[in-house]
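Design request, tokens follow.
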């Protein structure tokens, strides 16, 4: 594919990418997707800036052997770009209302309830581990970081002490999933929980969180945690225990729920949450909302308002 836009959007597409980058996104995936959209309509013989309903519906239709996730990325990009074009004053532009489809799977995240969280933390804070356990003192802080900051498990287990500024109370994720870097603040309660953990730990280690021997936390911590969930009877409807990664979904749901209850609109909150979670684009965060629809219908039902609010965005200083 050419490194340049060659179609009807060759002048306006770079402005959209510049706008996305002004918000803090690297916009690499959006840039590639926009070049594909531009070339698609170039090959169709379109020469002027327009996105009619017929054009949009043809472009976003699911293709043979295409995954739902790939189609969803195209749906999201097309909708955001069309919204941007309308803001710039282009008239023959259609902002679709096609709902992002569900994956071809029955998977649903487990959202830990307040009662679940109380039972979990009471257990890990008071349980007397045997002398051979590598998880002494680890689970209380590990689970709090996963729930309180929405980290991925690997981001925490790979985190080095040198990447954490305890004076400023910030954690630097240098190379997260998709090579996305970000800075995450530590709350006062999480900071104190970590200080308590380090006081109990009797070894030195390069890792921010380590086992009782100073080594990197094993992936087997997931299995260990799920055994605890079985003991305290926190299970999915099918009888299987939830995952550590479900703390990330729970964080996302609770964060958006709080911001929505505080009166913030989706236009403001969704990009913020997307950057905080280390997602490369908003469509990945939309996917989280889609999977958690059963738990979070009050926010997912407001997605259309998000795109209406987006029309009000002020871009003049960034163009």
């Amino acid at each position: 594919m050419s490194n340049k836009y060659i179609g009807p959007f060759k002048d306006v597409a770079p402005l959209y990418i510049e706008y996305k980058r002004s918000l803090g996104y690297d916009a690499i995936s959006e840039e590639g997707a926009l070049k594909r959209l531009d070339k698609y309509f170039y090959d169709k013989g379109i020469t002027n800036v327009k996105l009619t309903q017929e054009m949009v519906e043809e472009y976003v239709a699911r293709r043979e052997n295409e995954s739902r996730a790939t189609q969803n990325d195209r749906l999201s990009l097309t909708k955001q770009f069309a919204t941007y074009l309308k803001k710039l004053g282009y008239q023959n532009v259609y902002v679709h209302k096609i709902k992002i489809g569900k994956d071809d799977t029955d998977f649903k995240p487990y959202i830990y309830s307040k009662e679940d969280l109380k039972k979990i933390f009471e257990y890990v804070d008071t349980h007397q581990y045997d002398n051979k356990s590598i998880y002494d003192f680890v689970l209380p802080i590990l689970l709090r970081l996963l729930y309180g900051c929405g980290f991925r498990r690997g981001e925490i287990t790979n985190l080095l002490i040198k990447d954490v500024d305890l004076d400023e109370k910030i954690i630097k994720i240098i190379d997260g999933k998709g090579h996305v870097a970000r800075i995450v603040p530590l709350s006062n309660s999480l900071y104190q929980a970590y200080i308590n953990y380090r006081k109990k730990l009797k070894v030195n280690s390069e890792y921010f969180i380590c086992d009782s021997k100073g080594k990197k936390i094993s992936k087997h911590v997931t299995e260990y945690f799920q055994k605890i969930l079985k003991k305290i009877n926190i299970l999915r409807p099918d009888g299987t225990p939830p995952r550590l990664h479900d703390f990330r979904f729970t964080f996302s749901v609770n964060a958006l729920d709080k911001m929505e209850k505080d009166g913030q609109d989706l236009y403001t909150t969704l990009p913020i949450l997307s950057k905080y979670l280390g997602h490369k684009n908003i469509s990945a965060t939309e996917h989280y909302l889609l999977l958690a629809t059963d738990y979070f219908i009050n926010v997912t039902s407001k997605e259309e308002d998000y795109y209406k609010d987006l029309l009000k965005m002020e871009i003049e200083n960034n163009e």
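Comment from the thread starter after seeing the answer: thanks! The CA atoms of residues 25 and 43 lie 29 Å apart.
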